[in-house]
């Protein structure tokens, strides 16, 4: 299947304009390179139509409505551009695209392109033909306020793109200095192989024909040329100056020309052969840009390359990069932009009949630096880098699939527990949206809105108010069902003790009471009891079916697949089967998976990945593609038209879809990660095709679940059966990998042989391998006060992370440390409680919580901290599982304070790379924080030692060697 490109532009065939000529060549070249191309553009402007142009049968052109009745003024052009941009979005629904390119200077194209690319979930490329947004200020467009607003929007859109294209090196460097996305320079170009040099005409001394052919706009400052012509012709009437073209300033230029006695011959635009004849007529051709706009130092008029390719002599009223090109590409004139200097230049050239010879060096320069072939090849390469092997499903088909999967998932949650569904929806919103929406919801009251209010309070962590609100209903007539609704909110929060307390105060025969008690049992982990209890509830047949299906899988039912008789694996090809991945989540799990695959790819392995069935649509990415590519790694999505509604059936569906993908990819090895639901699917597929599989244990999810449910949780059906399934997966796999010594010991307890387990600890890569940046500069870039003290974390915020301990410690320190701030970066179910704890302790103004940040920013937050904290509470899971966050902090040269737990002691060397502090002891944490803030030299030494340890022992390249050995050993058996 060909790659598909959608170009959003303000000018295209049959117009003949600079952007049209550039992209006509590019699209022809891209088509030859295997691309399918479509263009979204307005109707052609009759003034610029060149009917002699060759057709382009290889592309589809879609045009927005005709608004030619609008005036040809700055405001009229802006209105046309806005209408085109608005109309482009619905028109794009009919186009399939793997990548969207928007060209400026029609600035609304940026907005349209960004929206279209977001809808289609494809990369967005911006071509900056001019130095925007700098030109906004230099042209004083719309006044200071409007200009600042527009410039800010342009900058945000540039930063939101996946790739920027500039036409000059200078402006590319400017964009790079502004820390924009990747920037590539693709020059305006010409094809020189079959283009004849235009021989300079023979002329007598005193004669000189001067031509300006191009746009008559504000940027060219053509009034200067008219004034220079009047001066020159006063001294030498044999100097003839001709303007050919059109533009917004032409009426004003004609008026000026008339007032000076019409020294310049002013003609309408020409195309094709007529343009060449004008070039033959001219002895020197003018390219001009005003010098009072600083950004034009990084601008090269596109006409420059055309004139050079014909070998024409050029008079350049330009500076910067354009002037440098003229100096390199032959014997041309570069003139200061004042009328007298320009007139003097023309007078001097006129005196010498041989002063404007054919410039062979100009054509040679274009052939070397700006040929069509070279620029098309570069553009093709740039675009392919954005999507190396991208496949695309039609937008309508993706929408249908997304609607089906998301509806199944949503209905499942709604049927399970309406309160839980409300919590899930709000918690998945970005923090900047979640809090105001929850705040509004919390203020609702009356009837069913009381439940909405309860959910809002729950999301905000205001559980005390929630209890008070529910208690106020006790004993009142007709409130029993509403009390059950409040109990369901507490069930959704995991506060089963409070939920049961309220349910015990409801009249026994109240409708919904039995179902609520069944939900308590199910949430507690007593699965069999919950199923039996729910069977006695009214109208809960579907819930019983769902729970019975899940219990069946927990009790050992596995997907069943028929053996494949003929399977021929591809040597060196490995397929990773993952729970989630980049680019839809920046989680530590996804980062680890990606880093491992990149490192293995460098060792020669053929790597790709597939994620669990329905993901990422089931978590809200409704327009997800069936495949994503990140840094050359392909991530396939298993997106069925209809997602199975029950647990065991969904595992079977997952196995069947994975088998089809395996038969297509033909891997020699499968590699999956915790938990057991991944393992049983991969085991079934591996057995069906007869290849080995690796199980990587990254967590103790049963213990994570139990950590929030009290000591008795380990005796429940859920915990016991979960652990049994994990043990079976551990013993069935052909290879085992885990993160640390404590987790390895757990696998040995399951019965695995110690020497067969590969330790692959969390490590760092990418920006964390680079020398850490300056702390003060990082704070400035993030908008933080550089003179304050910052203690904090970059983490998923879940209860067992224990951030409340640091909140309490900070409350003890704040009275004597007015500059102390807690920087809590991340999001999760614990964030509302963390912020509520800070509010109750009176230090809410000392807590900075920016929410979840992208991986491109996370290293800056690490660099901004003085101390990194990992204050995990003491549970079975936290004593065993090693996190990634502290390794990244050490790589950033920061001292780490961590709870004194066995797993964390593998990552923090006490009094060398940081300090181990008693878990859940705010006073001890306050003392540890103060000790490092009071001794910055000690903190610096610890940070330096931590980085040295990471660089020596904790890189993905080092881990990749272990995987490489494991894969080779398994495949050799």
UniProtKB/TrEMBL annotation:
Keyword Chloroplast: no
UniProt cross-references to Pfam families, sorted A to Z: Glyco_trans_1_4, Glyco_trans_4_4, Glycos_transf_1
Keyword list, A-Z: Glycosyltransferase, Transferase
Protein's name in the database: Glycosyltransferase involved in cell wall biosynthesis
Domain Glycosyl transferase family: 777-949
Keyword presence, S-adenosyl-L-methionine: no
GO-annotated molecular function: glycosyltransferase activity
Domain Glycosyltransferase subfamily 4-like N-terminal: 19-185, 588-762
Source organism of the structure: Enteractinococcus coprophilus
InterPro entries xref list: Glyco_trans_1, Glyco_trans_4-like_N
Entry-linked SUPFAM superfamilies: UDP-Glycosyltransferase/glycogen phosphorylase (SSF53756)
């Amino acid at each position: 299947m060909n790659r598909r490109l959608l170009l959003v532009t303000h000018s295209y065939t049959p117009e003949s304009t600079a952007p049209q000529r550039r992209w006509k060549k590019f699209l022809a070249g891209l088509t030859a390179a295997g691309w399918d191309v479509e263009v979204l553009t307005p109707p052609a402007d009759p003034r610029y139509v060149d009917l002699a142009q060759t057709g382009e049968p290889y592309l589809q052109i879609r045009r927005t409505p005709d608004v030619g009745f609008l005036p040809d003024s700055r405001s009229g052009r802006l209105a046309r551009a806005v209408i085109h941009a608005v109309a482009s979005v619905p028109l794009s629904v009919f186009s399939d695209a793997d990548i969207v390119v928007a060209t400026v200077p029609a600035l609304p194209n940026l907005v349209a392109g960004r929206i279209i690319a977001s809808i289609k979930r494809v990369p967005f490329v911006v071509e900056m033909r001019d130095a925007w947004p700098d030109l906004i200020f230099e042209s004083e467009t719309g006044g200071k306020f409007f200009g600042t607003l527009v410039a800010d929007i342009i900058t945000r859109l540039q930063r939101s793109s996946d790739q920027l294209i500039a036409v000059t090196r200078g402006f590319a460097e400017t964009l790079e200095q502004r820390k924009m996305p990747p920037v590539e320079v693709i020059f305006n170009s010409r094809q020189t192989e079959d283009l004849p040099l235009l021989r300079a005409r023979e002329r007598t001394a005193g004669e000189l024909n001067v031509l300006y052919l191009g746009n008559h706009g504000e940027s060219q400052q053509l009034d200067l040329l008219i004034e220079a012509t009047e001066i020159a012709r006063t001294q030498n009437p044999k100097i003839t100056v001709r303007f050919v073209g059109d533009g917004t300033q032409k009426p004003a230029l004609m008026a000026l020309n008339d007032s000076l006695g019409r020294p310049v011959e002013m003609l309408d635009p020409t195309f094709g052969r007529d343009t060449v004849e004008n070039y033959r007529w001219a002895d020197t051709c003018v390219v001009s840009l005003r010098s009072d706009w600083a950004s034009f130092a990084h601008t090269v008029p596109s006409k420059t390359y055309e004139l050079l390719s014909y070998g024409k002599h050029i008079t350049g009223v330009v500076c910067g990069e354009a002037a440098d090109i003229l100096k390199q590409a032959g014997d041309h004139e570069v003139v200061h932009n004042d009328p007298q200097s320009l007139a003097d230049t023309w007078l001097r050239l006129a005196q010498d009949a041989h002063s404007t010879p054919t410039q062979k060096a100009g054509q040679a320069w274009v052939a070397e630096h700006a040929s069509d072939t070279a620029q098309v090849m570069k553009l093709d390469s740039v675009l392919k880098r954005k999507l190396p092997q991208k496949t695309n499903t039609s937008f309508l088909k993706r929408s249908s699939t997304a609607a089906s999967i998301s509806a199944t998932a949503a209905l499942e949650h709604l049927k399970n527990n309406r309160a839980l569904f409300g919590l899930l929806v709000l918690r998945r919103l970005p923090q900047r949206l979640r809090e105001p929406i929850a705040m509004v919801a919390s203020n609702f009251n009356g009837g069913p809105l009381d439940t909405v209010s309860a959910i809002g309070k729950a999301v905000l962590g205001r559980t005390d108010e929630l209890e008070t609100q529910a208690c106020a209903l006790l004993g009142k007539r007709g409130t029993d069902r509403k009390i059950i609704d409040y109990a369901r909110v507490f069930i959704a929060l995991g506060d089963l003790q409070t939920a049961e307390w309220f349910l015990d105060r409801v009249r026994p025969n109240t409708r919904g009471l039995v179902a609520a008690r069944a939900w308590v049992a199910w949430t507690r982990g007593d699965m069999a009891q919950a199923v039996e209890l729910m069977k006695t509830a009214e109208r809960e047949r579907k819930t019983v079916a769902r729970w019975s299906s899940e219990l069946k899988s927990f009790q050992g039912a596995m997907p069943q697949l028929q053996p494949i008789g003929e399977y021929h694996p591809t040597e060196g090809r490995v397929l990773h089967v993952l729970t989630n991945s980049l680019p839809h989540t920046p989680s530590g799990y996804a980062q680890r998976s990606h880093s491992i695959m990149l490192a293995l790819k460098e060792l020669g392995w053929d790597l790709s990945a597939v994620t669990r069935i329905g993901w990422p649509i089931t978590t809200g990415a409704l327009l997800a593609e069936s495949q994503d590519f990140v840094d050359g790694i392909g991530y396939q999505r298993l997106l069925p038209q209809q997602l199975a509604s029950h647990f065991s059936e969904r595992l079977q569906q997952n196995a069947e879809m994975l088998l089809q993908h395996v038969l297509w990819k033909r891997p020699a090895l499968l590699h999956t990660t915790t938990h057991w639901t991944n393992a049983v699917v991969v085991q079934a597929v591996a057995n069906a095709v007869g290849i080995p599989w690796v199980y990587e244990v990254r967590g103790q999810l049963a213990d994570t679940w139990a950590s929030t449910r009290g000591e008795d949780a380990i005796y429940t059906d859920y915990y016991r059966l979960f652990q049994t399934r994990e043990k079976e997966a551990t013993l069935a796999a052909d290879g085992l990998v885990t993160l640390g010594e404590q987790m390895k010991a757990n696998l040995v307890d399951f019965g695995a042989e110690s020497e067969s387990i590969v330790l692959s600890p969390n490590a760092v890569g990418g920006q964390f391998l680079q020398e850490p940046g300056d702390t003060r500069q990082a704070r400035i870039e993030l908008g933080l006060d550089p003179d304050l003290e910052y203690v904090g974390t970059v983490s998923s915020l879940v209860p067992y992370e224990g951030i409340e301990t640091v909140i309490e410690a900070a409350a003890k320190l704040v009275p004597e440390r007015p500059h102390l701030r807690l920087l809590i970066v991340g999001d999760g179910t614990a964030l509302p409680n963390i912020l509520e704890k800070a509010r109750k302790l009176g230090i809410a103004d000392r807590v900075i919580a920016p929410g979840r940040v992208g991986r491109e920013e996370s290293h800056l937050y690490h660099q901004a901290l003085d101390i990194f904290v990992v204050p995990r509470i003491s549970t079975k899971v936290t004593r065993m599982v090693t996190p990634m966050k502290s390794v990244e902090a050490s790589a950033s040269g920061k001292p780490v304070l961590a709870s004194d737990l066995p797993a964390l002691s593998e990552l923090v060397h006490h009094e060398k790379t940081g300090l181990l502090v008693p878990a859940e002891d705010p006073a001890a944490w306050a003392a540890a924080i103060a000790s490092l803030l009071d001794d910055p030299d000690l903190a610096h030494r610890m940070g330096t030692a931590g980085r040295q340890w990471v660089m020596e022992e904790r890189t993905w390249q080092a881990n990749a060697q272990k995987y490489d050995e494991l894969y080779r050993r398994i495949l050799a058996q």
